[in-house]
Known about the structure:
- There is one protein chain.
- Helices cover 35% and strands 32% of the residues.
- It contains five helices and seven strands, in the order E-H-H-H-E-E-E-H-E-H-E-E.
- The protein has helices at residues 18-33, 39-48, 51-59, 106-120, 135-143; strands at residues 8-12, 64-69, 72-81, 90-97, 126-131, 147-156, 159-168.
- The chain has a seven-stranded mixed beta sheet, sandwiched between helices.
- A hairpin with a 2-residue loop joins strand 2 and strand 3.
- The protein starts with 7 loop residues before the first strand and ends with a strand.
- The model has no long low-confidence stretch (mean pLDDT 94).
Amino acid sequence: MLGSRSDIKIRKGKLADASSVAETFRQSWLQAYRGIIPHFHLENMIRRRGPEWWMSVIRSGDSLIVLEKAGAIVGYATLGFSRTRGPYQGEIYELYVAPVHQGLGLGEHLFEACRHGLDQRRLKGLIVWALAENTTATDFYWRRGGRPVKQAFETIGDQKLEKIAFAWSS
Length: 170
């Protein structure tokens, strides 16, 4: 079990969070995918997901949770029903912590909050997809007990990128 940290708070995202989440998204995606996703495509992906996009995510329901440290949003996750057929009913779609706050255990807190949220929805089993070249993510999920269960490829621009699904049974 994780220890309690009084300087962090994990909660459901609110409309007022959209700009902060967009900035956390921008920073974390540049860090995670620079050199993996072709530059032009990465920039376009980031540009499309500005504050307005995040407002629509927040309006759509309770699939966005944010992590605050000392009152500032420094991480976020999206979660819900698995998009993959199989025994895993829950999925973490995205889990990111701003680069300056990585390595402090905050991602682990966010991950456990996602697991708790999926448990509250009574979803059995969990799956998370990560690009194989994003070793920070694949190592993170491996350390959390996830094991590779599927592989797929996604083409972005002229790059064929391998994706790995990590899973946890109930």
